[in-house]
Specification:
Layout (H helix, E strand, L loop, with lengths): L2 H32 L1 H6 L4 H9 L2 H26 L2 H7 L4 H25 L1 H16 L7 E5 L2 E6 L2 E9 L4 E10 L5 E13 L2 E11 L7 E10 L5 H14 L2 H13 L5 H12 L3 H19 L2 H27 L5 H22 L3
Antiparallel strand pairs: 1-2, 2-3, 3-4, 4-5, 5-6, 6-7
Helix pairs in contact: 1-4, 1-6, 3-7, 4-6, 4-7, 4-11, 4-12, 6-11, 9-10, 10-13, 11-12, 11-13, 12-13
């Protein structure tokens, strides 16, 4: 019996390899054309350009995995049916479940690998992409450069660095903020520390402020204010963009700790709970795509080949994206509970695949 799984998985991996390679090449070609203007306006060395596009490959791989798993499943099983090998196996007493089981196990393992890859590899690759584009190609300093550790945010703009202990987008409020001002030689000249800051019609209103000036005749001048307004260019929307990028880059454990801390302080964490559940549910789409592909693969031998498999793969991937995106948006808005929002698409497609498998005729 070991020969049959090896034979099936060999075809599966060969097809998946070519599908992934084609997807990445297609992604890169499109990306090169989209960034032609950038490269013409900002000439860079060949090595820089190669590293810039290479740093995007992990994200491209993660995004293309679901449809390539579905294609590999459809085509590998479809070829078995087209060559009448499925009938031969059925005659020998090998059930369809025994045939598809090796592929489903591999698809589940791919989902686990995708989870850890998206946790540790993709975020680092994305940060490298940003660095290569802004610093190496555009030859300028990152204007909003966040550095993230647990729930602390560092934002750099020009000669000013913001340290934000916690940002609450909905309330347009910052808790625990320190602003460091540097001169052209990157020497610290001034710091502003506040318990919190709130966005008002007049700008940022800081509360319980300690302002330290290191350029005075006494080297250190300290001023205290109960309330003071500061002319800061960054609006809540600017910090929100940085903050949302950071939550996307958090690992599952980091985001979980951040949610626990917000819960302890009584803040609404619905949006972040949706993202937390999505970090588990979305990588499983690789297994879901393989599962939904199996009943169609069993029919390909009679009704078509690679062309029909491709159409089916793109169609179901599209519908999954639509359902998943709608549910996530409803979850962020509080219409759906976080768990339901993150897992609805997976649950629906699992039931659909089981129903199709039980009703398909081969």
């Amino acid at each position: 019996m070991r020969i049959i799984p090896k034979y099936i998985l060999k075809q599966f991996f060969i097809i998946m390899f070519f599908a992934i390679s084609a997807s990445i090449v297609l992604f890169l070609i499109v990306d090169v054309f989209e960034n032609t203007g950038l490269l013409l306006d900002h000439p860079a060395s060949v090595s820089t350009i190669i590293l810039y596009f290479a740093s995007k490959i992990p994200f491209m791989l993660f995004m293309s995995l679901p449809i390539t798993v579905m294609l590999a499943t459809l085509i590998s099983l479809g070829l078995l049916g087209k060559n009448l090998e499925l009938i031969a196996l059925r005659t020998c007493g090998v059930s369809h479940i025994a045939v598809i089981a090796p592929i489903l196990v591999v698809a589940f393992l791919i989902s686990i690998i995708a989870f850890f890859g998206n946790e540790y590899i993709v975020p680092k690759a994305n940060r490298l992409t940003d660095y290569m584009e802004i610093v190496k190609i555009k030859k300028k300093e990152q204007q909003l450069k966040p550095e993230y550790k647990l729930d602390k945010i560092w934002v750099k703009r020009g000669n000013v660095i913001y340290y934000i202990d916690r940002f609450l987008p909905k309330e347009k409020k910052i808790e625990g903020i320190t602003i460091y001002h540097f001169d052209e030689n990157f020497t610290l000249v001034k710091t502003i520390m506040a318990v919190d800051a709130e966005w008002t019609d007049n700008g940022w209103e800081f509360h319980t402020v300690d302002e330290k000036d290191f350029t005075g005749p006494t080297l250190l001048s300290v001023k205290k204010f109960d309330v003071k307004y500061y002319d800061i260019k960054e609006r809540p929307e600017d910090f929100k963009i940085v903050f949302e990028q950071q939550t996307e880059k958090m690992s599952f454990r980091q985001l979980s700790r951040y949610i626990d801390r917000l819960n302890e302080d009584g803040y609404d964490t619905t949006r972040y709970k949706v993202d937390l559940h999505s970090k588990v549910s979305y990588p499983l789409v690789n297994f879901i795509m393989a599962l939904i592909a199996t009943p169609f693969a069993l029919m390909i031998g009679r009704k078509g080949g690679i062309a029909s498999a491709t159409v089916i793969a793109f169609t179901f991937s599209f519908f999954y994206w639509v359902v998943h995106s709608i549910c996530i948006s409803l979850g962020h808005g509080g219409t759906l509970p976080p768990f339901i929002a993150a897992w609805t698409a997976n649950i629906l497609f699992v039931f659909a695949s089981v129903y199709l498998f039980l009703t398909v005729r081969t």
